[in-house]
Amino acid sequence: MNYTYEKAKELLTSSGKFRISLGLERVTKVLELLGNPQDNLKCIHVAGTNGKGSVCAIISSILKSNGIKVGLYSSPHIFKYTERIKINGKDMEDDIFSKYVFDICKIADNSAIQLTEFEILTVVMFKYFYDENVDIAVLETGLGGRFDATNVIKSNLCSIITHIDLDHTDRLGDTKDKIAYEKAGIIKPNCPVITSEGYEAIKDKADSCNSLFVMVQPFEDTSELALKGSYQQENLSLALAAIRLLFPDISHEVISEGLRRVEHPCRFQFFEDKMLLVDGAHNPNGALALRESLDRYFPDKTRRYVFGCLTTKDYPKMMKFLFTKNDQIYFYHFNNKNSATVAQLKEACEYPSNEFISLSEFPYDKDVLTVVCGSFYMINEILLK
């Protein structure tokens, strides 16, 4: 069969696959048919509402700088599915990715197991990392923790739980405590957990698992970190706590090199030649963190926002955090069935606004910063328009 990335993409986005269905039963059955490759991996497992992708990227970069073969599993992707599965910073190759996708779907279909898109990707990741003999796998949960497909692992080197806020409340609960309970589901017996917030659900799960509970304060110096944004201080503190706990022999020089080389696109990413900043702030907490970072790094710039959001998010609250009366505001309805329309966004916004057409409509002005934010799903559309 001629495996192509486009055919694999069509399969993953087909109506039968492209859905969310939490639970471990389906992915467990398929992994059993593959010989349980996940049981032979050493994993660092990261959950949380905001910051988990940055924590994973920082840890992976430091481990790579120390000569460790590291696999990184993250989501969502910006341009291609292959971005989600990396070894030593290199995306999985298109043809290899496509073959894994079709082979795993065939195994699942032959056993009448209806995997979702994220479950397929997770199985692909575990099998690929096992086949490539990675030393450490750094795993970012997709949604929640307890019933997330990545949580099929029986043990880990450590769990990390980042900042928790209200998001996906229809699936994870309508309070931070309920969401913390779901995130705490990644804690494994006798495996340490690192966090910066003292939710009782996390402490209780650590106690019941006889797991070392490590509480860190967000006071690390971010001057060497390639990622910018005031919120990165907490993420860096969590990542360095994990490195120091698990790999105490890694030198300060190697850590510094790793911090300088961290790559995590579309997280407060600034393109100076275009006066363009892209940030995947996709919930109220992310919007507030973005606003605080803009105030810190670009206090004197006029702000032009290009904003689009899913209707499943609290976009009125996000806009309240982001916008002021002096901002230029543009709304975009992107290609997703849950994308809020321009009319919906205008109705929820207290300030004058316009419909976004293309970045080309904005002439370069060194005093005007264009900020693209609101949803990862729309970023690739806007940047490619």
Describe this structure in words.
Strand 11, helix 12 and strand 12 (about 330) form a beta-alpha-beta unit. The model has no long low-confidence stretch (mean pLDDT about 95). This protein has about 375 residues and is an alpha/beta fold. Helices cover about 40% and strands about 15% of the residues. The chain has an eight-stranded mixed beta sheet with strand order 4-3-2-5-1-6-7-8, with helices on both faces. A six-stranded mixed beta sheet has the order 9-10-14-11-12-13. It contains 14 helices and 14 strands. It is globular, with a radius of gyration of 21 Å. It starts with a helix and ends with a helix.
Overall residue-averaged pLDDT value = 93
Assign a percent range to the helix content: 25-40%
SSE succession: HHEHEEEHHEEHHEHEHHEEHEHEHEEH
Count the helices. How many?
A: 14
Total number of strands: 14
Helix- and strand-based class?
Answer: alpha/beta
Q: Which ranges are low-confidence, i.e. pLDDT below 50, for 5 or more consecutive residues?
A: none
Name the features.
385 residues, 14 helices, alpha/beta, 14 strands, 38% helix
Write the layout of secondary structure elements.
Elements: H1 5-12, H2 25-33, E1 43-47, H3 52-65, E2 70-73, E3 85-87, E4 90-91, H4 94-110, H5 117-131, E5 136-140, E6 158-161, H6 169-172, H7 176-183, E7 193-195, H8 200-208, E8 213-215, H9 232-246, H10 252-260, E9 269-271, E10 276-279, H11 284-297, E11 302-307, H12 315-322, E12 328-331, H13 342-348, E13 354-355, E14 368-373, H14 376-384
Parallel strand pairs: 1-5, 1-6, 2-5, 6-7, 7-8, 10-14, 11-12, 11-14, 12-13
Antiparallel strand pairs: 2-3, 3-4, 9-10
